[in-house]
């Protein structure tokens, strides 16, 4: 018997029996609604800001390390340990990010992540010992872990398969731009207000962006999309919602 490939798209919200066709109309036959355009634009602007701030935070210790070493009496080895402990916490925290993102969605995961990494960034400007710095760097690493998974999830949710290249490039460019502009911006801030207020200012800015993200962004499943909007977002992919028992019978018959 000829096999039949079926892909289940969990993003759709059709009722049982409403979507029996396996194919989705081609994207050139569909129109993007003004609401989808607004959602896409808002999401990408906020993701861009979040990614730039993310790399401002990451670069702050490297830019200010000589001043921090002198004031806190840290060695070069201890500064290296501060950089390493961040990466270690960041890497370990990536492991539960996927399951949590699937359950809670980007709105909560990125909102909370950005809030807490920015909070720890601000607290970095108040530390007075190596141990305190280690703790806040661990907190920053955990907070920043959802950034990239959430960005990819947002693009996957709100752009159909044929138009994801541009937003993905835009999102990736934000990190490169963040790396490029961080040294001059952070150096200027440090010269103007000192390293402590540099950390605090960047942290407060990130908190405001986190609040803006939570207020303005909505997960795809939280918005009642029209059939046309669903079809547009699913354009180019196979989309089907069937009764689980029916799927089991189909799988057994292959």
TrEMBL record:
Originating species: Klebsiella variicola
Ranges that cross the membrane: 39-56, 72-93, 108-130, 170-191, 197-216
Pfam families named among the record's database cross-references: MFS_1
PROSITE patterns the UniProt entry points to: MFS
UniProt keywords, alphabetically: Cell membrane, Membrane, Transmembrane, Transmembrane helix
Coiled-coil portions: none
GO molecular function terms listed in the Swiss-Prot or TrEMBL record: transmembrane transporter activity
Xref: InterPro entries: MFS, MFS_dom, MFS_Na/Anion_cotransporter, MFS_trans_sf
Family from the record: Belongs to the major facilitator superfamily. Phthalate permease family.
Domain Major facilitator superfamily (MFS) profile stretches: 43-254
Superkingdom assignment: Bacteria
Cellular location(s): Membrane
Main subcellular location: membrane
Entry annotated with the keyword Membrane: yes
Transmembrane keyword on record: yes
The name this protein goes by in its record: D-galactonate transporter
Membrane topology: Multi-pass membrane protein
A single cellular component GO annotation: membrane
